[in-house]
Amino acid sequence: MARNVENATFLGMDISRHRPKPFLEFLSPDQIALLQSAGRRRTLSDGQFIHSRGDGEPGISVIEKGAAKAGIYGPDGGFILTSFIGAGHSFGEFTVFTDLPLSHDISAVGPTTLINIPAKVFLKLCDREPAFLSALLRATLLRSHVLIEMLHALRLLALVPRVAKYLLIMAPLNGVNAKLRFRQSDLAATLGLSRASMNRALAELESLKLVRRYYGHIEICSAAALSVWLEKTVGDD
Fold first, then answer.
1. CB 138 within 8 A of CB 89
2. For residue 175, what is the DSSP state?
3. Least CB-packed of 15, 135, 181, 198 within 10 Å?
4. If pLDDT is split at 50, 70 and 90, which confidence band does 143 have?
């Protein structure tokens, strides 16, 4: 029993501690307003491309409203989803501080508004207001921690708990009716599963009334209930 408890702790079953916190949540209203005035606002429709893999123009983008999904198109044309980016989150930061191009294809999920700040402008803002750099560092480190949690799930959990944990980490909202707007096939490719295996896992979670499947999205009925089920399932292994 002690081994199971220790294992559950190692796997980080308190999902709330392993969710990335939005960049904007680390800033004051005045700092957010300064950031908005320094950038260019873009309004996008569902599915519209924001950036393509390989784009070299350095800058940081911050989502005001809506969401985005990031991934990579494989040789066969299939899309491998890597992250779901919600309101308040940023992306493209590494292009500001390195010479690397963007590494993912990013598109809007639903009606989305974002602010794009060129690298030189953002660096000047950081010189003027160090809180921007501090906020970016904290948000980025939290995202890195989430990536470690995902690796734990991929390597250590059985099929259904693995899918459950990934859904919790990827969910853009806490609480009830959190919607993840991507196809089951995208999720399967991301986790390295066949469509049949993903369908089987989601069907089991749906039979437990923890998720609902729809065309084009998956709904988590209750993040709290799914987290409790996940902790109990891993603890019982």
1. no
2. S
3. 181
4. confident
